[in-house]
Amino acid sequence: MSCGEPHETDCSEVLDHLYEFLDREMPEGDCTKFEVHFEECTPCLEKYGLEQAVKKLVKRCCGQDDVPTDLRSKVMGRIDLIRSGQAVPGQDVSMDAAGTTAPAAE
Predict the structure, then answer these.
(1) In 1-106, which residue ranges form alpha helices assigned H by DSSP?
(2) Are 94 and 104 in contact (CB under 8 A)?
(3) Which of 1, 31, 34, 87 is most deeply packed, by most CB within 10 A?
(4) Which residues touch 39 (CB under 8 Å, ≥6 apart)?
């Protein structure tokens, strides 16, 4: 998506990293760059507003659910692997009826 207007920060870069911005998981300088982009780009600002609303809705509806400790550990481990650039094992993990994680049936 692009609004067709020239910007210092391209629309595709903003949209590719929108969730990092929403979650404040990027350096402050990049956040400032995105904020400037939103001030001058209505389509990106609208997409940001929509994603922000969805995130708030999910938090309100699902924010009280307890996450099993082992699932949280596995997810955080995968995130660490991805951030470090290491290969992520291809094994799919799902929840069983008891709320514990188990390899998905193939």
Answers:
(1) 11-16, 18-22, 28-40, 42-62, 69-84
(2) yes
(3) 34
(4) 45
**Which tokens in the block code for residue 53?**
């609303």
Nearest of 5, 45, 4 to residue 21 by alpha carbon = 45
Give me the residues paired with residue 93 across strands: 103
Q: Render each residue's pLDDT in the chain as its tens digit; 106 residues.
A: 567 778 888 999 999 999 999 999 999 999 999 999 999 999 999 999 999 999 898 888 877 777 788 988 898 888 888 878 776 666 554 545 455 445 544 4
Q: Residue 64 phi/psi, 5° resolution?
A: -95, -5
Q: Which two tokens stand for residue 67?
A: 């996450």
Residue 95 CA to residue 89 CA, distance in Å, equals 18
Distance CA 37, CA 8 (A): 8
Q: How far is CA 44 from CA 69, 76, 89, 97, in A?
A: 37, 30, 34, 41
pTM passes above 0.70? no
